[in-house]
Amino acid sequence: MNRTASPLPISRAAFMIAALAFLVRLVFVSVHERPSFSDEVDYDRLGSTLAATGTYVDDGRPTAYRPIGYPGLVAGIYAIAGHRPWAVHVAQAALGSVSALLLWLLAGRGRGGLWAAAIWALYPSSILYADLLLPETVFTALLLVGAVLAMHGAFATRRGSLLLGATVGLLVLLKPMALLLLVALPLAGRVDRLRPTHFALLALGTLLVIAPWLVRNWIVIGYPTPATSIGANLLIGNNPNATGGYTERVPPSMIPLQSAEGERDAGEVSSALSYIGREPLQFLRNGFGKLAHYFGSEGGMIVWGFHRSPGDRSTPLREKYRSLPLWLHAAVSGPYALAVLLGTLGLFAQPRGATRAYFLAFLGASLATHFVFYGGGRYHFPLMPFFVLFAAQWLSGQRAGPARPGWKTYAAVALISEALIGVWIAEIVLVMRP
Fold first, then answer.
1. Is the dihedral of CA 95, 96, 98, 103 positive or negative?
2. N or C terminus of the chain: which is more exposed, having fewer CB within 10 Å?
3. Within 10 Å of residue 63's Cβ, how many Cβ atoms?
4. Are 175 and 139 in contact (CB under 8 A)?
5. Distance (Å, rounded) from C-alpha 271 to C-alpha 158?
6. Residue 406 region, left (φ>0) first, then alpha (ψ -120 to 50), else beta?
7. Alpha carbon of 409 to those of 203, 341, 348: distances in Å?
8. CA separation (Å) from 168 to 2, 140, 322, 363?
9. What is the gyration radius of the CA atoms in the chain, in angstroms?
10. With contact defined as beta carbons under 8 Å apart, do 200 and 193 qualify?
């Protein structure tokens, strides 16, 4: 699975699965009507302004609160198709089908690859995200491109490291947390006993992509930050009212009064770090709660995608959960839970190699990020194609790892599964209580 291989023609079965993935998503985004909510409103506004004026501003002022990557993509589509969010959804439907093909490639183009592609083609959360004006679908497709590059030798060759670095740069323009891959990828490569990554070229490839954005922010914001939302997100997860998930209940005394975006961001970072310094044990306890939110069910995204008024502040979130049909929760969260549990078993059966190292690097970067910031079901989505890949290989009998995993492997899988099931049961209890 992890050997360098020359490109081969796409099989007819893989092509048909990719076509099915696109058609399913196209039908869904065409018939499913829903209001824009939360971040979607920002991305739509930023993209339409950028398409109309050619400048990245919000309310007439330069901004870096949202990284440029996804609004830039939205602006490009709006410039061609007009101000039509549906056109972005169609593009994301196409990326969903591309992701299915990339999974087929990652699995070695065999039976396991067809299983992985087919599961992803019909995976409910992937279909749902195609209809959301959020960067998750684009980010996940690019993440899989990086995995294919790693499989084809990016850990060992100069050109491959440069291309992988450029892919990381594009990921950073979508989600700044991807910067941690510059550290995580070389570490994971060494753990899996691969040839050392050409770190300088990996970093160079990333810098070449993000440098224009950083320079722009240095000029108009005051310092070369990938986003000025870092402080706000850090403060959400590190204050006396923090829950581990998203909350707007930040004490007013911790929110800086500065009106300038850059100064406000720096003030929020300072407030959050001061709190962590005063309450280190609470920070650690909250960190595990954040990871529980991170691996929570898809309930929050089901509300986002199917509730008539997901932004209604007068209705508690758990009431919105309960207002939606049980079969809908089962249809979306059930496959997620199965993919994570079976994917974990498949991961432990994986041999050392580039694909496993790449996944472990991203998993480590994600866990570190959300341990420090805050968690939520939305943020685990980029992990899911990898869990689908490992689960499909296990189910299809395509196991390149140990033929008979030892008791330590089964014990580790059992502990992880028990922790995940405990998180899901606790979530159900919290949602169902009066």
1. positive
2. C
3. 22
4. yes
5. 42
6. beta
7. 35, 14, 7
8. 20, 12, 39, 14
9. 21
10. no
Compute the distance between CA of residue 377 and CA of residue 381 in angstroms, rounded to an integer: 7
Report helix angle 136-149 to 354-372, nearest 10.
Answer: 140
Q: What are the structure tokens assigned to 33, written together? A: 């009507």
Name the residue with tokens 């910031």.
373
Characterise 398 by phi-psi region: left (phi > 0), alpha (psi -120 to 50), beta (else): beta
Q: Which residue has the tokens 């919290």?
A: 430
Instruction: Give the residue from 367, 216, 215 showing the smallest Cα distance to 291.
Output: 367
Q: What is the pTM of this model?
A: 0.93
For residues 175 and 194, what is the distance between their CA atoms, to the nearest angstrom?
27
Give the containing element (helix H, strand E) for 58: strand 57-58
Backbone angles phi, psi at 37, to 5 degrees: -145, 140
- CA separation (Å) from 4 to 106, 154, 156, 166, 354? 11, 9, 10, 20, 10
- Residues 410, 360: contact at Cβ < 8 Å? no
pLDDT in tens, the chain (434 residues): 444 444 445 688 999 999 999 999 999 999 998 888 889 999 999 999 999 999 999 988 999 999 999 999 999 999 999 999 999 999 999 999 999 999 999 988 788 899 999 999 999 999 999 999 999 999 999 999 999 999 887 777 889 889 999 999 999 999 999 999 999 998 888 877 776 668 889 999 999 999 999 999 999 999 999 999 999 999 999 999 999 999 888 999 999 887 789 999 999 999 999 999 999 999 999 999 999 999 999 999 999 889 888 888 888 888 989 999 999 999 999 999 999 999 999 998 888 888 999 999 999 999 999 999 999 999 999 999 999 999 998 888 765 555 566 777 778 889 999 999 999 999 999 888 87
Give the relative orientation of helices 111-121 and 384-395 as an angle to the nearest 10 degrees.
130
- Residues 330, 157: Cα–Cα separation, whole Å: 45
- Structure tokens, 151: 């499989």
Residue count (the chain): 434
